[in-house]
Write a structure and sequence with these properties.
427 residues, Hypothetical protein af1432, 2 domains, binds fe (ii) ion
Length: 427
Amino acid sequence: MNSIHVPIWDLVLCLSNATDLVTHQVSDHHKRVAYIASEIAAAMGLPQDTRNRVTMAGALHDVGALSLSQRLDTLHFETKQTTEHSVAGALLLGSFSPFEELASLVRHHHAQWIDRDSRFRSREASPPTESYLLHLADRISVLLPDQGQVLVQVPHICRKIREQSGHMFEPGMVQAFLELARRESFWFDLTSRGMDILLSDRMRRRSLRLDLRMLEQFGRLVGYVVDFRSPFTAMHSSGVAATAEAVSTLFGFDEDRRRRIGLAGSLHDIGKLAVASEVVEKPAGLNRSEQSAMRGHSFHTHQVLEAVRGFEEINQWAALHHERLDGSGYPFHFTKRELPLGSRIMAVADVFTALTEKRPYREGLTPDRVQSHLHKMARNAVLDEDVVLALDRHVDDLNHIREAAQTEAALTYKNFRARLNEAVATS
Ligand SMILES: [Fe+2]
Ligand SMILES: [Fe+2]
Ligand SMILES: [Fe+2]
């Protein structure tokens, strides 16, 4: 068995939820845009395929807006700060083959209908029609009130959208939206807690065979996303992934399980997207609120991965890396009995990488010193002794593997950023 069966929507949700960790202010925005685009597509009688595509693109359209200020910028109705995050989003999605078809929609999700002939003709292909639908859904979403009765706002929203018919938006789409807007149920669904479930019920039917190559592509995509926010975390995760993979072979993991633990390593700190990078990179002396934010990261990892059916084991391996054998870890306080071998390997790989890698505030420790730290942690029932002993016997090799993986990751991320800068400059 060299592949996992995964609903493609679950991977969309996983990435969408992960990027939403960056700021709660926009946390419903992705799903609302997905829902609005899906409903307008249905009202227009567009084919099911198109409807699926705009829903997925809606849930991911701001994936490229990873700095907080960029995300908040996208929430103004007539924002001009559009190119960079659209280009970044398209490049990100294009790097994972199942999301490739969404890239051009996201690339043009701020394209104005009135510019359809002039702006793009000379340099690049015209935006796909679905982009205009995404644009409309996006702007409806930013007009929704933060709180209070949504119906009170509806006339205002409809007026703003109608005013832009034929200018910002395609008139047929505006018409379909205005019809839809007459239904109270549309607005109540859109602003209710159940909207998530509604979307998932609709979208989970299409699933995907995720082979090992795609698993790795997905890991890399997440790496790119994390790298925008905290290059240090992205690099660290590459080291943990390579170390965990190498250690798992010492315990007889076959290629399939080894690559999965590699993916778990790439994902283990994805929850750090919820923590400000200044806090992630702070050497010591975290105050209480910073400490509790940090303590939340592995729980967030767990929540983000929980969205993916088929990732149950990967989630356990990834999210339990701060649990300790004696039950004093976090967030679940599991003990050795409840911690699968893959999670115990991950915990050791995490500490090993953290100690050997160069940190923003200090050089890496020598393998000797790292070994003595690991032994102490094994004696204190923090880490698994068998895993520590296995690592011990190959410490120099493992350190090379870890270092090589991090050097390669640094290059990969650097190239991606260069491609992005170039794409932004030429767009
Ligand atoms: Fe948006
Ligand atoms: Fe962690
Ligand atoms: Fe970590």
